[in-house]
What does this fold into?
Amino acid sequence: MRGTVLVTGASGLVGSAVVQALRHRSGLDVVALTHRQQIAEPGVRTVPGDITAPRLGLDEDVHAELACTVTQVVHCAAQVGWLKAGAQLEATNVEGTRHTCAFAATARARLIHLSTAFVELPLTASSSAPVPGSRNHPGGYLDSKRAAEQLVREAPIDAVIARIPGMLGNSRTGETAVLQGFHRFVAAAVQGRIPAVPLLPASVLDIMATDVVAEAIAALVCSPGGTPPLVWLTAGPAAPTMAQVAATVTETAGALGLPAVAPELVEVAELARRLSTSGIRPGTPAWRRVADLSAMCEVYRHERRFPSHLGAIPGTSAPTTQSVLDALAALTRRSAR
Ligand SMILES: NC(=O)c1ccc[n+]([C@@H]2O[C@H](COP(=O)([O-])OP(=O)(O)OC[C@H]3O[C@@H](n4cnc5c(N)ncnc54)[C@H](OP(=O)(O)O)[C@@H]3O)[C@@H](O)[C@H]2O)c1
It folds into this structure.
């Protein structure tokens, strides 16, 4: 496969792994669109931009040049902070995707748009928080990702929507370019600071290593023909349960001599009841920690297994539950350091 691939969000958790996966593929030139944070990758050209602006915020001559040379765009740039106000989510995730589609149309480039598996869940900006007082509900973010998918579906371009699950770190090292909510949760669990989790043992956590998902995206780039317009780069049937996740974190931390204690897995209503009778006052940091954890867990509070195209896309293999848990163990060891 030959061509030039423009990667947006190249400094982020997923985008940085995608750049790594692509730059090792022969015949591909990789151009990384950077925003606030710079990246330095051998052999990768960087261009400053802002997807919230027309022409992706590129200088006019750079835009004209890239419109002539780019053959595929991997769109990883997004606002994934669930705390962000609707306007910021709209500007980056919706308008940013509109501008990215417009660039792909001008360049006649194929677009691989990153979305989240969790758009399938019935969570919206108007869903109520499971524990009152949370600032961390995923509903507004998921609304913006649904709107972005719709723009991609309607754009007059060759496009693939790739739905990915919760991201761990690198499958072997546990390294993450960015620390997000799930990574902080594992780090707190390792230190024995999570006595209870508002998820049931049978709750399903679709989580994957960043490099595994990034290699699957690189495989999509390298096999342009015959890809369905929507692909799931998820653990799918291999997604572990909360009981398996808790056991892996606790056992991995325990083997390192850390004080991790298996968290109690409880119904969220029971956790809310305990909180309200604990003497902890609403609005205090201690209350908010529980409310925010409960809100974060909303995307895992179900027993549903998403589909997965991993193994069916040429150049990918289907994950196993053990491979997912091994990546979680790597993240746990990394968090312990
Ligand atoms: N992380 C997950 O667990 C997860 C799960 C499912 C789906 N996804 C999806 O995967 C994609 C990547 O997410 P991620 O976790 O890698 O996010 P991330 O770590 O927060 O990275 C976001 C990237 O977008 C860039 N960006 C933000 N605003 C921008 C703007 N206005 N113009 C240009 N670039 C901008 C950021 O650059 P600066 O930092 O320099 O601003 C950063 O490189 C997103 O579509 C997300 O919805 C992620």
The mean pLDDT is 95.
